[in-house]
Amino acid sequence: MTCTRTRPQNVPAQNRNPQEDGQVGPVWAGLDRPEPDWPDLVTAALLGTDRRPVPALLDLAATQAVARRAGLRPGPAAPLPGAAAADPRPPLPEAARRRLTMLLPARGGSGGAGSGGGAGGGGNLANLNELLPQWLAAAGRHGYRCPAPLVPRCWTRPGRAASCGRTRWPWPVRWACGWRNATPTGASSCAPPAGDSPEPDRQLWQEGLFAERVTHLTRLRRRDPQAALALLRSTWSSERAEDRLLFLDALQEGLSARDEPFLEAALTDRAKNVRLTAAELLSTLPGSALARRMARRALACVVLTGTADGARMTVHPPTVCDPEMQHDGIAPASPTGRADRAFWLGEIVAATPLDTWVTAYGPPEALLALPVSDAWQQDLLDAWARAAVRQGDARWARALLSLPSRHRDGRSTDAPVPVPVGSAAKLLAVLPSEEQADWSAAFLADHGLADAFQLLVACPAPWPRGLGRAVLDALVRAAAAGGYPWSHSGVIGVAERALAPEAADELAALAEHTVPAWPRPSPPGRDAAAAGRDARRADPRARPEEIPGPR
Amino acid sequence: MDDRWTPEHVLSLSPDAASRKAASRLSAPAPWTGTGSDDRALWGHCQGSGGSPYRTVVDLEGPAYQCSCPSRKFPCKHALGLLLLWSAGGTGQDRAPDWAAGWLDARREQDRLRRERPRGEPAAAGAAAGGAARATAAGRLARRSGRVAAGAAELQVRMADQLRSGLADAPRQGAAAWGGVAARMVDAQAPGLASRARELGAVPASGPGWPSRLLEEYGLLHLLASGYGRVDTLPEALAATVRARVGFTVDTAELLRGPLVRDSWLVLGSSDSADERLTTRRIWLRGSRSGRPALLLSFGRPGAAPEYALPTGMLLDAELAFHPGARPLRAALGTRFSAPAAPPAAEAVPPGLSLDAALDAYGRALEDDPWLDSWPVVLEAVVPLPGALGWELADHTGPQPVAIPVDRRSTPDSGLWRLAAVSGGRPLTLFGECGHRGFTPITAWYPDGNRIRTLGVTA
Question: Considering only residues 1 to 30 of chain A, which have any Cβ-Cβ distance to chain B shorter than 8 Å?
Answer without folding.
Answer: 1-3, 8, 11-13, 16, 21-25, 27
